[in-house]
Every structure is written in C-alpha cells, then in structure tokens.
Write a structure and sequence with these properties.
Blueprint lengths: L3 H4 L4 H6 L6 H11 L5 H12 L7 H9 L4 H5 L1 E4 L2 E4 L12 H10 L2 E7 L5 H9 L1 E9 L2 H14 L4 E5 L11 E6 L6 H5 L3 H4 L15 H13 E10 L5 H10 L3 E7 L5 E7 L4
Helix pairs in contact: 3-4, 3-5, 7-8
Length: about 280
C-alpha cells in the first residue's frame, strides 16, 4: 500500500522539500516514545508529511493526540483504501488493508449490475466499487446516522454520484430479488473479544462496528439468512469474517441453501472472506 501522500498524487521531490523546523521531528519522536509507540521517529515523520500544507493543521497537537493512543487515521483525519483517500474520524471504523481484498472478490464475480454494501461505515467499499466497477447502481447502507454522514462527505470528496446512501439496519430496507451482488464487512467480534481488544481499538473505534453478540455471528447470520431474499437468482454474496469462525459461517451458508460456497484467505494467510452464490431457480 502507498502512503497518504502518494494517494494524494504529491510528487516525491515535492514531499521531500517540505522540511520540518529544526528539532521538530526529534521532539515529536521523544513525545511519541514516551507514549509507548513503536518506531516513534517514523511516526513523527509520517505525521509531519500527512499534515504538511493542510490548513489549520497543528503538528504538536497531532503528536500529543497520537502519543495519547489515538489511531493515526483519526489524528490525520484520513485513511487510504485501494485507490482512494477518504476522511476518517470516530464516527466510523477505520478501513483496514484486508478489506481491500473483499472489493477484489466481488469485482471478480459480479462487476456490474446493482450492488449493495451493507454496513458501509466510511463508505470505503461502496465508493471503491463505484469507481472500479461498472455498476449502474451502488447502495451504501448504514444504520448509524453519524457514520452515514461521514460516508456522505467521502462520496462528495470522491465524486461518486452513483452511490446512494441509505440509513437502514443490514438488509432490511432492501427489496426482494433487487440485487446482483451483496457485500459486507459486518461486525464479527464476540462481546468478550471486544472487551479484550487492544486499547487502541476499544477506546477509540465504535463498538457497534466491531462487536456482534456472544458468539460474534449475530450480524453475519442475519445477512446470510436474508441475503437470499434480496439477491436475484445467480447473485453473489461476499462477506468479511473472523478467521476463527470462518468454517462455521461456511457450514451455515450451505445449510441455508447458498451454493458455490468458498472461504478465501487474506494476504496474511488467514481464512477471512466468504464468497457464495444465490441458487438459480
């Protein structure tokens, strides 16, 4: 993955010409080290580069926030995802590199027609599908109004007018047999796993975007159960999973009548994605 400056299209020589004041990086690195961050100098340099030239950006404030444990994407207010640079803040989950592969999977089997991204958050999946696919209609569905407002801002930033934002709970607002593809990165941690998650996640990112009941399958099970209703015959479903429950989800999909069920590994070799097809009549 390229860094944020690369995504902004800034030439390397231009980035190198933005020189911080003498001692600023060293002082920032010391603050970050005191906050317990690994590779503090590298973090300091990245913060400087991402904030350089942005109006009202306060490097020292950003360093203090980062040293306090706030995720880098929230401190800088931006996160890269595939070919996009998106706004990021505490209204929604920070896009993860692994989720980029979910976009690749659905583009490989259903690159056109009508697609819905359920639980859109920042809008990263829906916006990527709109930019990279040939869809006539992209629906971005999100229950949380605050997250939906962030997705709206990102839609404006990207210029993907084909994306329609809908406030709703998972697939409930979708009509029967209305989609050619359905994609989702739903919450998939158990409540216990959420409570034991790293502080950098638990203290900053929205609980509703990560925790999914006692078994971690509450949202995934609902999508599997109702997905067959909203997809046209032959339509495709792509889900991101917790690798510890991938086999259980695949078995459940088969039990519900999904066909061509397969679990795909992520770049780290973990069973991370489910791909399944709505059976023909």
């Amino acid at each position: 993955m390229t860094d944020a400056a690369d995504r902004l299209g800034v030439e390397p020589e231009r980035r190198e010409s933005v020189v911080p004041p003498r001692g600023a990086i060293a002082a920032a690195a010391a603050t970050l080290a005191a906050g317990g961050l690994e590779e503090p100098r590298r973090e300091a340099v990245r913060l400087w580069r991402e904030l350089a030239g942005r109006p009202n950006a306060d490097f020292q404030v950003a360093v203090a926030r980062r040293a306090g444990g706030e995720p880098l994407a929230y401190v800088t207010g931006q996160a890269g995802f595939r070919h996009l640079l998106l706004g990021a803040d505490r209204r929604a989950l920070i896009p993860r590199p692994e989720t980029e592969q979910l976009v690749e999977l659905i583009l490989g089997v259903a690159p056109d027609g009508r697609v819905a991204d359920v639980g859109t958050g920042t809008g990263c999946i829906a916006l990527s599908l709109a930019i990279e696919g040939r869809y006539r209609d992209v629906l971005a569905i999100e229950r949380c109004g605050a997250a939906l407002s962030l997705a709206r801002e990102n839609r404006t930033q990207v210029g993907a007018a084909v994306v329609r934002l809908i406030q709703g709970d998972l697939t409930e607002s979708l009509a029967a047999a209305s989609l050619d593809a359905l994609v989702s990165n739903p919450p998939y941690l158990t409540d216990a796993e959420w409570r034991e998650a790293d502080t950098s996640v638990r203290s900053w990112e929205p609980t509703e975007a990560l925790a999914s009941g006692p078994d971690g399958l509450e949202h995934t099970s609902r999508i599997l159960a109702d997905g067959r209703r909203v997809l046209r015959p032959g339509g495709w479903l792509a889900l991101e999973l917790d690798c510890r429950r991938a086999a259980a989800v695949a078995r459940r999909a088969v039990e519900l009548g999904w066909t061509r069920v397969q679990v795909t590994r992520d770049l780290f070799g973990r069973e991370r994605f489910l791909l399944a097809r709505r059976s023909e009549p």
